[in-house]
Every structure is written in structure tokens, then in C-alpha cells.
Design a protein that fits this description.
Elements: H1 2-20, H2 23-44, H3 50-68, H4 76-92, H5 97-104, H6 106-150, E1 154-156, E2 160-164, H7 165-182, H8 192-220, H9 235-254
Length: 255
């Protein structure tokens, strides 16, 4: 019951934010979510005490804010800042390359896609944002119910034993069909084939994002990224699929 109530509350809050907040509010909210998710990510990869996270959280928020402005299409300055920071971590702070690389991934793993999500709102309006989120929800639901009904073969047993190949196929078929049918609501000039490819890309990338976070947690020996959301774990647990799927949708929208 706790999971159901908190899930419904999160969904209602997300829809309300998408429909009611001005663009500046959406950008600020994206940065806030990015900071929370990045803090969980940095905690999972064991990068030190919370105080040591502050510079990286600042960079995550900066990347998210920068990219959330659709007028800025070039992220090279931010990439150079990230590389310089990585070099300083290795050369002057005694970090190993692996430790420094894990930290430096945070702005691009979390900040960039959430910034793109806010830019989707700016470029396509609430409809575009809702279509992306609905496709991911449909994919997750299809994977869950198809997996429970028909699941026999594990998809990635070493990473997520409960995920099945049959569940992935069910989510793929359902979400791709959903995007093909609902896509013209946002992309009236798009062909059915291109919408089907978009839907398929979102599903496949979402599954990769889910498995990627599962691998991070399994390596760290934790079940959830945090206990922030009752019954659901942390922010990162809720947006893992979204983080991988947003860039493909954003590029399609710009094209």
C-alpha cells in the first residue's frame, strides 16, 4: 500500500509540474532532481563523505541548467571543465583513475539527460514531455506484467535476476505500439515507421538504463539508491530508465 500511495503521489506531482509550472520552474525542478539523484549516485560509487560531493553536485546542476536551455546546443565548455576537474582529481588529489572517472560521470549520467528533459518541455511543450514519460511507464508496465505471466528466461541474471527476456519483449511490443499510435499527438508530421523506431529506441535504452543502475547497486552491495521515497527507494531508482532514454527523444524532437 505504501508503494502504491507514494507512486500515485509522485505521478500526480510530476504531471502537475509538467502542466502548471512555467519553463523556469521546470528548469529549476530538473536541477533539484539532478542534485538529489547525483548525490545518490555518488554515494553508490563510494566517492567519500557528503561534504566531498559538493563540487560534483555543483557541476551536475551547472550541466543540467546549461543544457535545459534549448538555445544552447554546444556542451563543449562544460565537457572541458569536466575533463579539467578529472585531471585535477588524479594529479593533485591522489585519486585513482577509476575513482575520479566514477565521479566525473555524474554530470553526464544525471545532469545532462535531466537538462534535456527540461529542454524537451521548452521545445515541444507539456505534450512532448508527457508522451516520453507515458512511453516509459507503458514499457515498465508491459515488462512487469509480461514477465509475471510469461517470464521463463532471465534477461541479465548476473545483474537483475527478476528481469526476464519475455518481460522485455512484452514491454518492447507494448511501448513501441503506444508510441506509434500516440506519437502523432506530438509529432503530427512524423511517419508511423519513424515513431515506431523512436518507441523501440526508448524501450531499449530504458532497459539499458535500468540494468546500468542495477549493476551499480549490485557492485556496491546496496538494494536501493536511498530510502527517500517510501516503497520505491531513491530518486535514481525511479529515473534510471529515463536517464538513458531522454537523449534519443531529445535528438528526435530537435530533428
Amino acid at each position: 500500500m505504501t508503494r502504491l500511495v507514494s507512486g500515485a503521489a509522485l505521478a500526480a506531482a510530476a504531471v502537475a509540474a509538467i502542466l502548471l509550472l512555467p519553463l523556469i520552474g521546470v528548469r529549476v525542478l530538473a536541477c533539484l532532481v539532478a542534485a538529489l539523484a547525483a548525490r545518490e549516485y555518488l554515494g553508490i560509487v563510494h566517492t567519500g563523505r557528503p561534504v566531498a560531493m559538493a563540487p560534483w553536485l555543483a557541476l551536475v546542476v551547472l550541466v543540467c541548467w546549461w543544457i535545459s536551455d534549448p538555445g544552447r546546443t554546444v556542451g563543449l565548455p562544460l565537457l572541458l571543465v569536466g575533463l579539467a576537474w578529472l585531471a585535477c582529481e588524479v594529479l593533485f588529489r591522489g585519486r585513482t583513475v577509476g575513482q575520479a572517472a566514477a565521479r566525473s560521470l555524474a554530470p553526464w549520467y544525471v545532469g545532462m539527460p535531466l537538462g534535456m528533459l527540461a529542454a524537451v518541455q521548452a521545445l515541444g511543450g507539456p505534450r512532448a514531455t508527457l508522451l516520453l514519460l507515458a512511453t516509459i511507464v507503458v514499457s515498465d508496465a508491459g515488462q512487469y506484467y509480461a514477465g509475471r505471466a510469461f517470464g521463463r528466461r532471465p534477461l541479465a541474471p548476473a545483474i537483475s535476476p527478476k528481469k526476464t527476456l519475455e518481460g522485455a519483449v512484452g514491454g518492447f511490443a507494448l511501448a513501441t505500439s503506444f508510441m506509434t499510435l500516440a506519437g502523432p499527438w506530438v509529432f503530427p508530421l512524423a511517419g508511423r515507421f519513424s515513431l515506431a523506431l523512436l518507441g523501440a529506441s526508448i524501450v531499449l535504452l530504458g532497459i539499458c538504463g535500468d540494468l546500468f543502475e542495477s549493476r551499480l547497486k549490485r557492485t556496491a552491495g546496496v538494494k536501493n539508491s536511498s530510502a527517500l521515497i517510501p516503497g520505491h527507494g531513491g530518486v535514481l531508482d525511479r529515473i534510471d530508465a529515463l536517464l538513458f532514454a531522454v537523449p534519443a527523444y531529445y535528438l528526435y524532437l530537435r530533428a
